[in-house]
Amino acid sequence: MESNKNFTDRFDWTLAFILLLLFIVSILAISSAQSSGQYPINFIPRQALWYGVGAVIIAGTMFFEPDQYKRFAWVFYGIGIGVLVVLMLSPSGQGQIAELRNGAKSWFHLPGVGSIQPSEFMKTFFILALARLVTKHHDYYPLKTIKTDFILLGKIAATAALPLALILKQPDLGTSLVFISITVAIIIVSGISWKIILPVFVAGAGIGASLLWMAIYMKDFLINTFNFDKYQIARVYSWLDPYSYSSNEGYNLINAMTAIGSGEISGKGYGGREVYVPENHTDFVFTVIGEEYGFIGASVVVSIFFLLIYHLTKVTLQLKDPFSTYVSAGIIAMVTFHVFQNIGMTIQLLPITGIPLPFISYGGSSLMGNMLALGLVFSMKFHHRTYMFSSDDDE
């Protein structure tokens, strides 16, 4: 019987191998990036340490079955919200528990530990809560109607509203967009009728287009009426016309495109960078890959991410438990949006936001948050055959 398979058969070796490839890419890119001299710190031991901690997180996450995560999903969500509220209320500045970076209060500073960004972990807690919500809704309303679909949509919107409001308050627009992408993915797979989804998505796209139009032609109205940050508005202008803002907001984008373009087909080789790009070990790490390894190297990295997303999709299709399916769909959306947004912003396809390239950019919070999410996939793959024919009788 399949449920009696041993650890070797049940462990997701393919996903582990993909993570190993991403670890190698990360170490190579960061080791070269730090030679630019922006920071007098050796980031390699720290990144390796975070990967080690991430491996422990995955191992710990695999120990529990998906039913246990389902049972405590709202507890995780509540803890995440509580931490975000504490962060919002905490004093910030030199020597304070909350840390300001680029005007955003998104970090806790813990003496002896370093900086922790709670929103990175809240992403996974949010996915668990939405998956639990949708599953229990379908259990309570086995017969779908337009009314029950509207009820479910309202529940999802209410669950998303609180973390979104807290993260926008920081303000962290990039992370907020990740939460929106997760919400959209869960709505799509939740079974809500497209008669409802399509008008909602069209309205959302219309609002987004209107905000972009106002940012270009009515920026004072946005700033004065909706309290938009001038820096966020400037990012829109620098995205559309970076060369007119080359000394300010457009500087990073111009240098990023120059670095990637100068790599041409095969790149300049390891350590052959000539273009200075700030934060090229974190948000702009893809510029290092593009410049040093060219189109070929960049394509290899994109292919690795494609394999990751493909494998996650394959695992999702194998799962029999609805809760696990929704969780996996949310994780796929989170990873996909991160990759698309990060790479897109370095080639002027999308505006620049503070979103790292998952598993490659330097950063403990981002890496551990992503490892926690993949730990759930490992757990679902490891345990799902044990109970795939049993009833869903959790509380």
Provide a descriptive summary of the structure in words:
It is a multi-pass membrane protein. The protein has one domain (2-387). The protein is mainly alpha-helical and 395 residues long. The chain has helices at 7-10, 13-33, 43-62, 66-71, 73-89, 118-140, 146-168, 173-189, 194-217, 219-226, 230-240, 251-262, 285-318, 322-346, 364-387, and strands at residues 98-101, 104-110, 114-116. Strands 1-2-3 form a three-stranded antiparallel sheet, with no helix packed on it. Helix 5 (73-89) packs antiparallel against helix 6, helix 5 (73-89) runs parallel beside helix 7 and helix 14 (322-346) packs antiparallel against helix 15. The two termini are 27 Å apart. Residues 386-395 have low confidence and may be disordered.
Low-confidence stretches: 386-395
- The figure for the number of domains is 1
Estimated radius of gyration: 22 Å
The SSE order reads HHHHHEEEHHHHHHHHHH
Distance between the termini: 27 Å
Tell me the number of strands.
3
Instruction: Characterize the largest beta sheet: strand count, sense, and whether it forms a barrel.
Output: 3 strands, antiparallel
Q: Report the structural category.
A: mainly alpha
- Which percent bin holds the helix content? 55-70%
For this structure, the quaternary state is: single chain
Strand order in space, largest sheet: 1-2-3
Estimated share of beta-strand residues: under 5%
Shape: globular
The number of distinct helices, counting runs of at least 4 residues, comes to 15
Determine the mean pLDDT: 87
GO biological process, one term: cell division
Keywords: Cell shape, Membrane, Transmembrane, Transmembrane helix
Main location: membrane
Pfam family, one: FTSW_RODA_SPOVE
